[in-house]
């Protein structure tokens, strides 16, 4: 019998979830988990609320609440909804909990130690009326490519282009509506995806023949356009704090947090740690191939698009059963004496847009993890 790790897409904390969310990711993972348990396999089904980022802060402000209170309430709402539908989660965690903070900060340190994170000075939008720098989603305006008038500072939902806030025409603050904006210098951390572009392409070449055609075409679209280095910190009050070597605020980046797209994938691992804390289990053995599992599976395609550069970036130690750079769970099915890894869902096209954004995901190895 195999040990099978199953995850489903993390529901975002903002907004009431609908049947499409249930049918699209949670129900297929639940059905697969029940089926594999019935076959006698050891299954761990992991999910959590994705709680950081601009939408959470904006939703909390609209509700007249501080963001922590808002997320506390919405987590309970979403947890109760899953229970009402009878979803068989083994754990339904939170990306705002301590394990995700610790792991995200650890992963960022290892990436930086391996030369894949650097500080850069950005020219960013500052709202004089709001008295703060505006993260990308706090800025809206007209898309320079398709002239859509409600494009966000990170992406245009009309044409799908990735944007920076300074790309927008006629920008305004999504917080106050103020157009009293100016561009100022500020420091941020960047993930150097350009350094692992060839590794990611090689991994996609190897794995994508089994993917859905649309997922494969989107993956290659982003690769052909060229991976770019991406900022992984934001000027927000709610999120995983950026810290220095002493664990305190990092000089020059005080008050900044990691971008939600950087910390959210790590929550799958952190939620497993939450499960272990509550049940006396060993979360590491579910994720590290050199510490327990011989096969694992995932129902979300983030593993298919992000793990390859994770392994190359983190340079983890080798072991008797894991070659250098590959001790963490893989979505590639394997057969033989180690059992059969299973994937409850094929990759979804939407997740492949992560390749261009976050192909070099946080490393998941190193001392102290």
What would you note in describing this structure?
- The protein has 369 residues and is of the alpha+beta class.
- It is built from eleven helices and twelve strands.
- The strands form four sheets. It has a four-stranded antiparallel beta sheet with strand order 5-4-9-10. A three-stranded parallel beta sheet has the order 1-2-3. Strands 7-6-8 form a three-stranded antiparallel beta sheet, with no helix packed on it.
- Helix 2 (54-62) packs across helix 3.
- The longest helix is centred in the N-terminal third of the chain and has 20 residues, at 19-38.
- The protein is globular, with a radius of gyration of 20 Å.
Summarize the helices and strands and which ones pair or pack.
Elements: E1 3-7, H1 19-38, E2 42-49, H2 54-62, H3 67-84, E3 91-94, H4 98-113, E4 117-127, E5 132-133, E6 139-142, E7 151-152, E8 169-173, E9 181-191, H5 197-207, H6 213-225, E10 230-231, E11 233-234, E12 257-258, H7 260-263, H8 267-279, H9 284-287, H10 302-314, H11 354-358
Parallel strand pairs: 1-2, 2-3
Antiparallel strand pairs: 4-5, 4-9, 6-7, 6-8, 9-10, 11-12
Helix pairs in contact: 2-3, 4-8, 5-6, 5-10
The fraction of residues assigned to DSSP E strands is: 15-25%
Instruction: Please give the largest β-sheet.
Output: 4 strands, antiparallel
Q: Any idea what the shape is?
A: globular
Helix percent reads 25-40%
Widest β-sheet, arrangement of strands: 5-4-9-10
Tally of extended strands? 12
Radius of gyration of CA atoms, rounded to a whole number: 20 Å
User: H/E element string?
Assistant: EHEHHEHEEEEEEHHEEEHHHHH
- Average pLDDT reading: 81
